[in-house]
Design brief:
0% of the residues lie in helices and 56% in strands. It is mainly β and 355 residues long.
Length: 355
């Protein structure tokens, strides 16, 4: 079911992969983010203040020869999450937003003709309170707010949520921040169908929905037995919210009735990321930290979740994963990129889905 096309050494520990969506035929770009603790002489244990460094890699994947070329390497603070932002106009460039261990949002413009990323802006979450040590910025999501402006949500290591506005001119405007979770707020995601709702999950095992109009909690869910680590508001099925947790369960909820999950599937490892395929959104790629990368079929009518297969190439913590944006090849296969932590490994693979 899986064929590894490329296996790359990222040198630093790899934890994030994001494929540029809606790319043109013939070639496709993706970014990989890394996170590395800095070795200091005489240090016995990792401490919260231990320096962390990272890199952003830009890759070109070519069709039909399945070639892979590393185009760029950008030194930065340790990357925890990244997302491609949509172009502000039909001929405008897409931007890559990253969040890092210094509590910063950094945004890069993708210069297609030059095949490189160019930094546009950097914003620190502690900018409003510069006397405080910034938290780690853990997760990032976005939604369109009007024709050109993008609203960004960032969750952080102090349990906080942060709302920002980003303009095509590269201007970042802080809207507000608030404390949501008692421990790390591992993840956040806008509802794709109700843009006034923002979901968050934390190490306190809580899943929350925040009403951005009233600045109040819409609801709190306590179904998880460990920290809530990733969220997916489904792009095809309104009211369907998928969650991943350290408790190893993939859950599907109906947001109109959160008392119990519609379906659950044990994937055998804490689930760090959930990615639907752009053209086949009921195919979910799950990064299961301590086991593998799993491909899951969602059935909205049953409702149900079923495991189709598991990619076992990685031997360390499975963190970053994404589908390539192009559709089926002549042989019906799909393409994905995955990366893992301590073995600093990036793989590009073919996936054959049984019909």
């Amino acid at each position: 079911m899986f064929t590894t096309l490329h296996s790359e050494d990222t040198e630093y520990s790899a934890d994030s992969v994001e494929w540029l969506p809606q790319d043109g035929p013939g070639s496709s770009y993706f970014a990989c983010g890394t996170y590395q603790l800095v070795e200091e002489e005489g240090e016995q244990e990792a401490s919260p203040k231990r320096p962390r460094k990272g890199r952003v890699y830009l890759y070109l994947f070519g069709e039909p020869d399945s070639s892979l070329e590393r185009l760029q390497c950008i030194e930065t603070a340790a990357i925890l999450d990244m997302k491609w932002l949509p172009a502000s106009s039909c001929d405008g460039p897409p931007h890559l937003a990253t969040v890092n261990s210094l509590g910063q949002l950094e945004v890069y413009e993708f210069l297609r003709d030059e095949q490189k990323l160019q930094k546009r802006t950097c914003f620190c979450l502690a900018e409003e309170e510069p006397q405080k040590e910034p938290p780690l910025a853990l997760a990032l999501d976005w939604r369109r707010d009007g024709e050109q402006t993008i609203q960004l949500a960032i969750s952080d290591s102090k349990g906080g949520l942060n709302l920002l506005k980003y303009s095509p001119q590269g201007e970042v405007v802080w809207e507000r921040s608030w404390s949501a979770h008692g421990f790390e707020a591992w993840t956040c995601a806008f509802d794709r169908w109700s843009p006034h709702l923002l979901y968050s999950g934390g190490d306190d095992m809580l899943l929350m929905a925040h009403d951005l109009r009233t600045e109040q909690l819409a609801w709190t869910n306590r179904a998880h037995m460990a920290g809530v680590t990733c969220l997916l508001s489904h792009p095809r099925h309104e009211h369907h919210l998928l969650t991943g947790s350290y408790d190893e369960q993939l859950r599907m909820f109906d947001t109109r009735s959160m008392k119990r999950a519609l379906a659950e599937l044990n994937l055998g490892g804490g689930i760090w990321r959930l990615k639907p395929h752009g053209l086949h959104p009921d195919l979910i790629l799950a990064a299961c930290m301590y086991t593998n990368f799993s491909v899951v079929q969602l059935d909205a009518s049953a409702p149900g979740l079923s495991l189709l297969g598991a990619y076992e190439e990685h031997k360390s913590i499975c963190y970053g994963a994404d589908w390539a944006p192009f559709g089926d090849r002549d042989d019906g296969s799909l393409t994905m990129a995955t990366c893992s932590f301590y073995d600093h490994k990036l793989c590009v693979s073919r996936v054959e889905i049984s019909k």
